[in-house]
Design goal:
Helix 2 runs parallel beside helix 5, helix 2 crosses helix 8 and helix 3 crosses helix 5. The protein has three domains: about 170 residues, FAD/NAD(P)-binding domain, CATH 3.50.50.60; about 45 residues, no CATH class; about 100 residues, D-Amino Acid Oxidase, Chain A, domain 2 (2-Layer Sandwich). The chain is of the alpha+beta class and about 400 residues long. The strands form three sheets. Strands 5, 6, 7, 13, 14, 15, 16, 17 and 18 form a nine-stranded mixed sheet that branches. Strands 1, 2, 9, 10, 11, 12, 19 and 20 form an eight-stranded mixed sheet that branches. The protein has a three-stranded antiparallel sheet with strand order 3-8-4. Helices cover about 25% and strands about 25% of the residues. The chain binds flavin-adenine dinucleotide. Flavin-adenine dinucleotide (FAD) binds next to helix 2, strand 3, strand 13 and strand 18.
């Protein structure tokens, strides 16, 4: 693996690419038209190296890496920063290494974990709690991989004695504990990415929806509800809205509605993040109680009901509750208490795609959610930034090319 972590070197390479060697391709774009309602801030009438459309998990990470690398970058977000109306709300996201060992995503998750650490240093904010990942299943064996030595295989007896919270598990059930797993704080991660990007000179326009974009030989033009901007490159990271902005992918991306529930256990200390890991058992998964939010979070990973981000029913209903209560009743009865919160979120099925849009040299996009994209977002953001500035990425993600 030869990932570049030296951002000043990357900036120098970027300047070289956009300097004499590629003067024609990177000629300064036409001046942006002044915006009628731009608020008189620094963004109006300015040309950018890159515009990032959408500042959720993927876009905010991309913005951070671009700003860190020295690019002149503008991020545009239709809602507030770190809002809960897309795919990244809900206080916690699982991350783990075990399922990816030996597979094509192992280098991506390892790079992502390095990047979370770097983000924490840059922002002075913890976003990754390494509380471990517990995979509960049947007759599991440790994978044949050098990293397996750090994993803990718990037979039925060891599992029951260490995690008596789980009850009535079928014969043959065992568990593997992955110490590299844990939970990420999505809203804090997005806010931290944006915070550092701003400190590194990025411009951000929140509460401003992109209504149109166009590319030409010199660059891209982006029209929003408040103005128009130009850049050399556009990164589209609009999550569940991608299909509305990229007609060619509209039918390849399906949005569905999922829910997340928080419950008050009989004894909260039995589910505390200091001693309880994130866990997964079949299609159910959950999170320990956070220091700053009450309730034990449980969810079901399934396809979800078809949805549209503009008309999504954001009110949780009785069926949503039933979906997770049935697991709690059977296997975690001591956590089956009152609801402390219930939230609605969106999966996007399709892809994963990351790279230049087919037929475009100045527009790239990412569609890599599928219910498990957050943990990779710090690495995906870096790859998007590299593609936008250098035309390629050192992350081994050829399998995600939208052109493939
Ligand atoms: C219930 C649930 C549980 C999950 N659990 C996990 C987990 O445990 N682990 C994990 O790794 N992943 C998990 N995921 C997946 C992960 O959360 C997503 O992959 C990730 O958050 C997607 O990020 P995104 O940037 O693509 O989308 P978002 O974060 O939704 O960002 C897209 C952004 O684009 C903005 N936007 C859209 N259109 C426009 C426009 N026209 N103009 C301006 N801005 C625009 C939106 O407002 C939004 O902010 C889960 C997802 C859900 C829904």
């Amino acid at each position: 693996m030869t990932f570049t972590s030296d951002h000043s070197m990357r900036r120098r390479r970027f300047v070289q690419i956009c300097g004499s060697a590629a003067a024609v391709a990177c000629a300064p774009a036409a001046a942006a038209e002044p915006s009628a309602v731009s608020g008189g801030d620094a963004t109006s009438g300015k040309d950018y190296d890159v515009i990032v459309l959408g500042l959720g998990a993927m876009g905010s990470a991309c913005l951070y890496h671009l700003a860190r690398g020295g690019a002149r970058v503008l991020g545009i977000e239709q809602h507030d920063l770190a809002h809960a109306l897309g795919s990244s709300g809900g206080l916690s996201r699982q991350t783990k290494v075990l399922p990816y060992l030996g597979g094509r995503s192992e280098p991506i998750i390892r790079r992502a974990n390095e990047n979370w650490i770097q983000l924490e240093k840059d922002a002075g904010q913890q976003v990754f709690h390494r509380c471990g990942y517990l995979r509960i299943s049947n007759n599991q064996k440790l994978p044949d991989h050098p990293a397996a030595k750090s994993l803990d295989l718990l037979d039925a007896r060891a599992f029951a004695s260490r995690f008596p919270q789980f009850e009535k598990l079928p014969d043959g059930t065992n568990a593997i504990l992955d110490p590299e797993g844990g939970l990420l704080r999505p809203e804090l991660a997005i806010a931290s990415h944006c915070h550092v990007a701003l400190r590194r000179g990025a411009h951000i326009r929140a509460q401003e929806a992109v209504t149109d974009w166009r590319s030409d030989d010199a660059g891209v033009s982006v029209t929003t509800s408040r103005g128009q901007y130009r850049a050399r490159h556009l990164v589209i990271a609009a999550g569940a809205w991608n299909g509305k902005l990229i007609p060619a992918f509209k039918d390849k991306l399906q949005v569905t509605r999922l829910t997340l529930g928080w419950f008050e256990p009989q004894q909260a200390e039995h589910f505390d993040i200091a001693s309880f890991p994130i866990w997964e058992h079949g299609s159910y998964y959950g999170f320990p109680i956070l220091p700053d939010y009450p309730g034990f979070k449980v969810a079901k990973h399934w396809r979800g009901d078809p949805a549209d981000p503009e008309t999504l029913d954001r009110r949780p209903g009785a069926n949503d509750e039933k979906l997770v209560r049935c697991y709690l009743e059977k296997h975690l009865p001591s956590a089956n208490g009152s609801i402390t919160a219930f939230k609605v979120c969106m999966y996007v099925h399709g892809g994963p795609w990351l790279g230049l849009l087919p037929g475009q040299t100045r527009v790239s996009f990412i569609a890599a959610c599928n219910g498990g994209g957050f943990k990779f977002s710090s690495a995906y953001g870096e790859a998007l930034a590299e593609i936008a500035t250098e035309g390629r990425t050192s992350l081994p993600i050829d399998f995600m090319s939208p052109a493939a």
